[in-house]
Amino acid sequence: MVTVLSGDGGGGCPAMVTVVVRRCGGGFPATAVVAGDGRYGGDSGGVVFRRRWLWLSGGGGGCPAGEVVGRRRRWLAGGGGYPAAVVVVVMNTLEEVDESTHIFNALMSLMRKFLFRVLCVGPIPTNISFIMDGNRRFAKKHNLIGLDAGHRAGFISVKYILQYCKEIGVPYVTLHAFGMDNFKRGPEEVKCVMDLMLEKVELAIDQAVSGNMNGVRIIFAGDLDSLNEHFRAATKKLMELTEENRDLIVVVCVAYSTSLEIVHAVRKSCVRKCTNGDDLVLLELSDVEECMYTSIVPVPDLVIRTGGGDRLSNFMTWQTSRSLLHRTEALWPELGLWHLVWAILKFQRMQDYLTKKKKLD
Amino acid sequence: FEAIESYAITLGLNKKYGSIDLEKLRCLAVVVDIEAAQDVANVVELLQWLTTIGVKQVGLFDSQGLLKKSKDLILETVPGSMLLEEIEKDVTPDGKRIALEFISSSDNKEAVMKAANILLQRYLKSSHPEDDKGEDFFTESHLNDALRVVGENVHVPDLLLVYGPIRSHLGFPAWRLRYTEIVHMGTLKYMRYGSLLKAIHKFTGVHQNYGT
């Protein structure tokens, strides 16, 4: 049995990925199931994503024995090795992608453009922040194996959401990637997540070097000094490589929490005041705010939290006094186009009130 | 449907809400938008409902401090209410009382700036090396202490109920708003007892990982 699936054709989405799934007899090597970023051999053994039709996940190798799960959307859970009933995923080249796939992709892209044109009749948030909750629950829900399985699925969601935000014309996106409190998780899980983030940063560096960042600037905000040297160096390189990009500015909050941010900003501004040798040593609000990790971006207009949580989890509580806080029950890897559109429509409906509030403040 | 459910809860038709374990809810905060804060009667009614439910401590916030100005009226009108700082000093605890705290935007960034300036003055008076980065003088604990010195309460509310047109904390003190559950209740003008009870009951069932 052969099933051919393809990406949905949006720029920056795995448009050129066609995944062929064959069911065969045993004895296949555990090689990678990969998702492209519009090129081949993207994530190493990561998640292949075709949002509406089929989900495949690999955790560094194909599927584990006995873990082929058939669902309405045909999920196959991976984690290493291949089962006796064998699923082999093979990347096709661009030339092998058939005509119907192209047409379908083009249609989806056109529909999206039309939808966004309509959406842009109203005000668009300047900065949308995302609290990306629910990766682990997603992995559990779909029986995905591997500590990073849910997070790998989450990364695919990041790509789609950034693509949609860019197409809509949102200038800034802030992502709550890893909070200071997340370091309290099991050391294995923390290492897994940090390794995954490093992998993605290095992938982005390759894309930046080959000119495939599509005008996206990446900035890392948080206590980066507390992270390992390799990660720090990679983030610094990525920030430098994308510094000139202006189409979409993405702030990735790592080792971040508002309480840490406030303390850090107070400390830095106080030390700076003393060093400057000012006669009148009095700290102003602007002195502190310019030392904050997220000072480079405007305050969020809209905060979207996935996973059904009702809290900000120590994320940008200082900056969100005039923000619309939107929550959705969808887990982060499930967040899609319609969730985003709905949140923006809500923002547009509340625009008068938010503008009035800004004036009063 | 929500209105029907709310009335059913108010009438006691839903036994699930018959009794609520309030042990998890040590501190409740209520954010009221400016227009609603002008109508103190609704705020008083809300506080009476909270007293009936058994909530012991409520922080009332509006960004402009209108409720602070009506503090005396509210304390006179809500039976068993006292200011939080007075209850803390009182050695004869009474189960029927409700501690009230009045908060506004001046308790947010302005308060942090006052606290920061206290820390700055301490830093200036201390002897420290020229290349010192201030790590011994500016920590979370130091900032907490300095906030207490300027008269701020640093306790983190467990639950924040927002009465206004949108789901937003409207400038509630950022330092205190870390893992607080934020629930949007709609406008104060159309508040319902059943919805309040449901929100508090739902909170008592929430499990937080606190990042772990």
Automatic annotation (TrEMBL), chain A:
Highest taxon above the source species: Eukaryota
Cofactor: Mg(2+)
An example Gene Ontology molecular-function term: transferase activity, transferring alkyl or aryl (other than methyl) groups
Pfam families xrefs: Prenyltransf
Protein EC: 2.5.1.-
NCBIfam families in the record: uppS
Role played: Catalyzes cis-prenyl chain elongation to produce the polyprenyl backbone of dolichol, a glycosyl carrier-lipid required for the biosynthesis of several classes of glycoprotein.
Protein name: Alkyl transferase
Organism encoding this protein: Arabidopsis thaliana
TrEMBL record, chain B:
Protein name: ditrans,polycis-polyprenyl diphosphate synthase [(2E,6E)-farnesyldiphosphate specific]
EC number assigned by the record: 2.5.1.87
Lineage: Eukaryota, Viridiplantae, Streptophyta, Embryophyta, Tracheophyta
Catalytic activity: n isopentenyl diphosphate + (2E,6E)-farnesyl diphosphate = a di-trans,poly-cis-polyprenyl diphosphate + n diphosphate
Cellular component terms (Gene Ontology): dehydrodolichyl diphosphate synthase complex; endoplasmic reticulum membrane
Record key words, sorted: Endoplasmic reticulum, Magnesium, Membrane, Transferase, Transmembrane, Transmembrane helix
Recorded superkingdom: Eukaryota
Subcellular location field: Endoplasmic reticulum membrane
Family assignment from sequence similarity: Belongs to the UPP synthase family.
InterPro entries noted in UniProt: Nus1/NgBR, UPP_synth-like_sf
Swiss-Prot/TrEMBL cofactor(s): Mg(2+)
A single MF term (Gene Ontology): ditrans,polycis-polyprenyl diphosphate synthase [(2E,6E)-farnesyl diphosphate specific] activity
